[in-house]
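hey can u check if this looks right to u? its 91 residues, i copy pasted from the old doc so theres a chance i mangled smth
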Amino acid sequence: MHEEYRDDILSSVMNTIADPILVVDEEGRYLEVFGGTDRSLYDDGRPLKGKMVSEILTKEFGQLVLRESGQTHDRHGYAECVRLSARHPDG
């Protein structure tokens, strides 16, 4: 595969996934938002890009996200998938 097309292809594939994929840096800033195409389950996550976890999530859940993402980076030296599940207040 040509290097010049790799990012476009990867981004296109990731944007077809029903569940959202949120890329968060060590400080808690949303760097990228992919997927989340099932609008019956998820709101559009693109407005999160550039915002801080602390602006969006409750304090406790935000701390969990940052703790988990920091631990995976510390263990491996690179980003890793962390699957978190949250219940919607309505059920």
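The mean pLDDT is 81.
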